[in-house]
Amino acid sequence: MEVKTASFEKVSSPKKTTVSGAEAVIKCLLEEGVDTLYGYPGGAIMPVYDELYKYQTQIHHVLTRHEQGATHAAQGYARVNGKVGVAMATSGPGATNLVTGIADAQIDSTPMVCITGQVGSHLLGSDAFQETDIIGISTPITKWNYQITKAEEIPEILAKAFFIARSGRPGPVLIDITKDAQFASLEFTYKKCSGIRSYKPKPEVNLVEVERAAEAINNAKKPMIIFGQGVILGSAEELFKQVVEKSGIPAAWTILGLSAMPTDHPLNVGMVGMHGNYGPNVLTNECDVLIAIGMRFDDRVTGNLEKYAKQAKVIHFEIDPAEINKNVHADIPVLGNVNETLKILLELLKPNKHEAWHQKFKDYYQIEFDKIIKNDLNAERGKIGMAEVIDEINHCSKGDAVIVSDVGQHQMVACRYSKFNQTRSNVTSGGLGTMGFALPAAIGAKMGAPDRDVVAVIGDGGYQMTIQELGTIFQTKVPVKIVILNNDFLGMVRQWQQLFFEKRYASTEMVNPDFITIAKGYHIKAKQVSKREDLKEAVTEMMESKEAYFLEVKVEQEENVFPMVPTGASVSDIRLE
Amino acid sequence: MEKKNFTVSVYTENNIGLLSRIAAIFQKRHINIESITASRSEVNEVMRFIIVVQVTEDQVKKIVGQIEKQIEVIKAFYHTDDEMIYQETALYKINSADFVKDLSIQDFIKGSNARIVTVTPKFFVIEKTGKRHETDSLYEKLKPYGLMQFVRSGTIAVTKNEMPISNILEQFDTTN
């Protein structure tokens, strides 16, 4: 007797048709509502590309210049619109080039399905040309992976892949398909997956825990919220705002929580963590109740765990049971999707203002403003500062642009200073810290949110890790705006060398090419600006451009990002200089 | 927190690659697996892994959480030694000449509840099932006679308490 391990919806494509495995792959993607995918062809995936040729009016395949770019583009696409991003590559090096993007999507909970071609099943294990064990390689960095060796497995496995990628805590899934399975034919019908018996996407909500949480919050004198991407992934932004407004609790965000709540909301008190704001970091160690919502207490958020919020009662709203008590002990764990738990919580909360407590955040902000922010935004020194550029972008975007940042100093500055009115506007590599993420992610973001301005803010180091994606921009004419904050250094590493390695600048100085000539080689409008008085006009011109635009800003070379929680220090020992 | 023996029981679907997915969770945390076995379980088409590790309770809790998160894992549990009935099996291959030469070997075998599996003119194979210290003790006794080969299985264990796997699976069948 066959055991039923997964359940599927009723047949959505009414009659069976005989198709090749390769065609079945495309039909599955269409059934799942995929309109755009990113990839790079090669030997073992050619049958699928041959079908893509036939289906090109129905599905847009974007040829990136490197498979890593395909994964980041798929991530950017998924992050702005919540759909599953899709990346495709051939076997061997094509598949291994996906690894960084898959790891990034795993740690940042991004829904993504990667499809790789594989050598014919009779060649598996023979060290065939372009054979690599991508299932073995991708196992620790995928939510699920599977190797298809028979054409008839394709519909069911792809249905499961999409279900797993998008449900619960989202993540990347890799499906490896042998070439013979792509060539063989099958009777095609498609049924969407609706459940897998060994997989529980979200835990059942325990009402008692929500009630305990509400009671603790209602009795708190100095409560503080830290919200993460869970609010966005749970589509709970509006509900979350209501919770914050009703309870009057100051709310701080993690880097991936940014934009879940408008940045100028009076109860938004800024970023926590290593380069976060002064108030929320210091007051983490003063609050009496710490309410963590859809976040995972990353070490960049907590600093030294031994000295993290020890005085506080911790309430943790979380969809993934493995995150409870992983880094910080939760006195009250509230498991479930935040769009369910916050709904119940909202009803139980008593309206409050916490004015005196909120004033503390304002006081700390004033200190930070006087010591850091004022200078960052209105520098009187020689060269342009990074924050000034972000500020100019804010003036043009009015807070409605999608900002895609790479990794390093410019990322911290972009996150600290960007204004956001709308959710799903901040796209950055948080957990993995993948340099090279932003340029391809911006391509995906613009395609995923074509009506919005998408601005990639990148350092001169990270830019050159995936600079070849300028070719993708040129070919697809996707109108992304690219800002390079060029300090001719790997700035964040240089900052650490200055602060902790006695200014031994080992391999952080960059001798850079002429970025303008490179952009022009791809026929992308390009401009360089190095003087403060020219900045406003240059940013405005970029923001008003209907086509892709490249702006290089020569910034202060040895600027440091502050505040800063040094490694091993407590969040309340955050340094202002 | 003190490190001690924990037995992790993992009920899974019968799929290729799950062993490495589970093993990777230990590897990522630099934890050595003392023993691992996989076999069919009491439930049709459901596999059961028995993994023994020496860690703190805090560590084993987190590991079980990560294992359970894997899509094809139905349920994972951890138990201390006193919550389980557990056994290992060891095989000892001895030169027949030695065996016959010194009859005290026979006393060891009888005394330790081992049994002779195979006898050939060249060698004997002795099997002993029991706790680690029991198979170890027989090993020490036989070693002076020149063990030709020795092998021991991973721990297999059943819990004293009930394992509610069938309930979980039935729940899926009725709701889907």
Characterise the protein shown here:
Chain A has 577 residues and is of the alpha/beta class. Chain A has three domains: 6-196, Rossmann fold, CATH 3.40.50.970; 207-361, TPP-binding domain (Rossmann fold, 3-Layer(aba) Sandwich), CATH 3.40.50.1220; 382-554, Rossmann fold (3-Layer(aba) Sandwich). In chain A, helix 1 runs parallel beside helix 7 (154-166) and helix 16 (386-397) crosses helix 23. Chain A starts with 5 loop residues before the first strand and ends in a 23-residue tail after the last strand. In chain A, the strands form five sheets. In chain A, strands 4-3-5-6-8-7 form a six-stranded parallel sheet, with helices on both faces. In chain B, 27% of the residues are buried. Chain B has 176 residues and is α+β, with helices and mostly antiparallel strands. In chain B, the strands form two sheets. In chain B, strands 5, 6, 7, 8 and 9 form a five-stranded antiparallel sheet that branches. Chain B has a four-stranded antiparallel sheet with strand order 2-3-1-4, with helices on both faces. Chain A binds chain B through residues 1, 3-5, 7, 135-136, 139-140, 143-145, 147, 164, 194-199, 320-322, 324-326, and chain B through 12-13, 16-17, 20-21, 24-25, 27-28, 44-45, 61-62, 65-66, 68-69, 71-74, 168-169, 172-173, 175-176.
Tell me briefly what this model is:
By secondary structure, chain A is of the alpha/beta class.
Q: In which range does the helix fraction of chain B lie? A: 25-40%
Class from helix and strand fractions of chain B: alpha+beta
- State the secondary-structure class of chain A: alpha/beta
For this structure, the quaternary state is: heterodimer
Please identify which CATH superfamily of the largest domain in chain A we are dealing with. Thiamin diphosphate (ThDP)-binding fold, Pyr/PP domains
| CATH class assignment of the largest domain in chain B | Alpha Beta
What is the CA-CA span between the terminal residues of chain A? 69 Å
CATH topology category name of the largest domain in chain B:
Alpha-Beta Plaits
Tally of discrete structural domains of chain B: 2
Q: Tell the overall outline of chain A.
A: globular
The domain tally of chain A reads: 3
> So how many helices of chain B?
6
**Beta strands of chain A, count:** 22
